Design the sequence.
């Protein structure tokens, strides 16, 4: 049974409208929701959630991701074939949403989808009218080369690469989860060049012990750890780091010694 | 693999309790959630969401819909067979919830379900004890004529039919989605009798350009378009029309030239 | 097709990360979400929701439940085989979460899972790295005796057993649903020793008629009934009992004559 995942910022009946299309084209598909809880039009958070999750799915999974403030404009529609330990497919808008996941999976080819549909897609719902049919066809084994033309000038999100300088570790917040855990783009490898387990660093002058798990500090206390996604995460044990630090998504983060 | 969809105003573990019943009777069913985010007991919004989504599902899909403030009272339980391009089944309370979807699918027959169950249904959870078993049996191909008696006096929601008079287009708000888009019951055909692309009309004295997609106006600006569901929709580009117009679900809407 | 259910307090992409692991090990699994809406780290509510729902699933269903404030600490990981009318499996942390469901199913054996994995589990996400693989293997028919060692000193949640004395019925609130219905741990049998249909009792000096269903009182009025889960429930017809009584989860409840 082929697997198609969905990640959107849609609520209400919109994800189900995509599923109706998928199941009409590919009735035996196992559709898995990655999340529909991305904050409206927050491409960066969507890209992070997709890159944390998509690579763990089985070989030949198709991921349809739609966080798409530019729907109906000139922005292109993409299908991607990514190959690492496994081969996976991605479909979604050309706004940077898919690229971090594709990179995490391995090497990848990007195709601009051309529509050969006789029906005109709704200018407000490409998730249903373009990406769902493309994803369904990919899950049935249709050749991605027949769905579009290869491109190399796809859009990538601007990012602040993590860096260490003058005893400051700088990175970017890429997701804040519903527990309030603040997830950065600082990978394990870089984190360990800056700090070792047992040491304490600082965020906004507040001490952050670097530990292995939440319960290594007292309840309500802040901490720094490598999250389950492999990136540096600022948390509180049994409490909300987002509220505690009053931090929001767009911020650059600076951790000091 | 037969498909059963669920649309309810249930949260928590209640939809899963319905799925347990369905999978016990029909283990190979593919259960798809349309939405469980209908505001509690808002039959009108549930009916709109169901009518927007159900007709797109494959042939022989069974839709179980439960927004049911009258549960346990004398209100009747319904099963419906609707036939247009496809045949679809609906099960739910006799309170108007199912009828707009049935009409959208095509012609339809309505049956009052009679319970032959030896176990008494919970007077507070017909979704689990009546509609889930009926839906599961319909998905297995059981004959709807054996499940109830045909009726014609089923309940329909009162609606304000869309109308144009004296340069005023009047309709009803039938759903407001989580982006804050205000969806009316004014279909494309009637909308185009009132306004053409490029023209500007007014809601509460505020200008509304009639456009094809959100990005046709500047960020934060209001607009009017035909939504992906085929009905007139009042939106803002990248912002929330519900908040902007301070409009709620029960309102009649009047668009002026 | 084997069934695995998930109940967690995870939001965002975390449940999907568990599904990726499950589908990699057991690709033909039907994964059903019981709920991911448990309030963060509220073991008691998670245990109630699981015990209300899990026992209704088909024979050999595997339930993975993770509400786990102690993740990464010394708390043990459990797999349970419960047998009553059906056999069901449970996997989750040793913090009391699984036990009420196991008891509701029937008699049960508890195993402490030992990890033979070569990969080290993330110290913050045992749902993905321990319970998802264990659940997937159980769904494939692997022998639970080979996954761990039997224990009898598993943790149980402290509870206030329901009791009647001096015309006071005392119990505990174990769940408040999203309609605001307050669910107690007082089972039907005990409730009927205290009150009969048609009688009125009191909560905080406010009258509560004991009825069969919500619509037996006027809109906005409080009532007492046996909920669909079989326990005494305090509700309002078409309104929110949680708000009306200003009651929260940790409270003991006392109903007076």
Sequence:
């Amino acid at each position: 049974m082929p697997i198609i995942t969905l990640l959107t910022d849609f609520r209400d009946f919109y994800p189900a409208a995509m599923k109706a299309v998928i199941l009409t084209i590919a009735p035996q598909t196992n559709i898995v929701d990655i999340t529909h809880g991305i904050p409206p039009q927050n491409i960066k958070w969507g890209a992070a959630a997709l890159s944390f999750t998509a690579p763990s799915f089985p070989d030949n999974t198709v991921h349809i991701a739609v966080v798409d403030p530019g729907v109906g404009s000139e922005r292109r529609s993409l299908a991607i074939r990514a190959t690492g330990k496994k081969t996976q497919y991605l479909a979604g808008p050309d706004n940077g949403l898919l690229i971090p996941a594709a990179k995490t999976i391995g090497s990848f080819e990007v195709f601009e989808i051309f529509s050969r549909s006789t029906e005109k897609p709704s200018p407000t719902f490409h998730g249903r009218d373009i990406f769902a049919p493309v994803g369904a066809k990919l899950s049935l084994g249709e050749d991605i080369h027949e769905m579009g033309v290869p491109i190399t000038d796809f859009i990538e999100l601007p990012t602040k690469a993590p860096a260490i300088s003058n005893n400051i570790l700088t990175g970017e917040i890429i997701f804040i989860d519903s527990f309030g855990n603040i997830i950065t783009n600082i990978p394990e490898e870089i984190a360990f060049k800056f700090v070792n387990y047992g040491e304490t660093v600082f965020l906004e002058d507040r001490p952050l012990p670097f530990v292995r798990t939440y319960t290594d500090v007292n309840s309500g206390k802040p901490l720094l750890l490598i999250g389950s996604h492999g990136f540096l995460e600022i948390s509180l044990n049994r409490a909300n780091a987002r509220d505690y630090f009053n931090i929001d998504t767009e911020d650059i983060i600076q951790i000091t010694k």
